[in-house]
Structures are given as C-alpha cells and as structure tokens.
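Amino Acid Chain and Its Fold in Token Form
===========================================
Structure side: the spatial fold of the chain, written down as a series of whole-number tokens.
Position: the record begins directly beneath this header, with no further notes in between.
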Amino acid sequence: MTGPPMSKTRILLIVCGSILLIHMLWIYSQLPETVASHFDGQGKPNAWMGKGVFLVFEIALLLFVVGEMLLVPRMISRLPNSLMNLPNKEYWLLPERREQTFATFRKYFEVFGSAILVLVTSVNHLVYMANVNRQNLSNNIWYILIAFLAFVGIWLAKFIMEFTRKK
C-alpha cells in the first residue's frame, strides 16, 4: 500500500535542498583551510572560520530551513481557530475546508523554502568563488538579493490573495 503522491512543491523543496548539499560537498575539498565567511558592504572579507565548521554550518542551515518549512505549517494546523489570523478565516477554517486550507499553506511554505535554498546556494557559490580566487565577494550578491526580495513580494501578494478570495 502506498501513501498519497508527493506534491510538486515538496519535490521542489527536496531538489533544492539536494542541490545545496551536493554543492557544499563538491566545493568542500576546494576550499582553503580557513574560509572567509562574512563580508562587509563592499564585499571585503571581515570574518573567517575553518572549512569544517563552514560545512557544518551550511548543513545545519539546510536542515533548519527544510525542517522549518515542513514543520511550521503542521504546527499552525494544530492551533485553535481563535489563534489564527487569516483573511476570511470563518470560511477557510470550516471543518470541510480546513484540511485543504492547510494543504495550501504547506505548498506555499515549501515554495518559500525552495526559494530560500536557492538564495543560500547562490550566496554559497559566491562565497566559494571569493575564497578560491582570493577576491572580494562578487557584486552579483546584490542582484541575487534583489531577485529574492522580488520573489518574496510576489509570493506574499499571492499568499494573501489566495486567502482573501473565497473559492
């Protein structure tokens, strides 16, 4: 007997997490023993850590993001309706709609988690390039952050619109 099929958004989260993990393992051997891990506004390194600590930090970040995006919707679904702040909550939290409402929450959280993992992977690659080439952090960081903030704005607008209207 098999369970329900895995959602596309869950698969996306797993793929993005796997890409980050593979990237970390791929760059690990190429990093110097001491890694520039923090950069100022001009991209100059101003803090360092051992590459083993860097790897552990990145893997912990991966586990935290994936865990948070999988667990928070589940925890929210267990709250009483009175503690939820949701547009049209009387409609969305009716017993016959509640399960579908939280399935939608899960999908939105999984997409958001995937975007965070893409952000982390992109920044991680720029940190890798700065360390291997012994250069400042690339100005591409600003484009990555702008793209992420644009995504957050669109994601938030879609999330709010999803629950503002009644289906």
In short: The first strand starts at residue 34 and ends at 39. The chain has a mean pLDDT of 93.
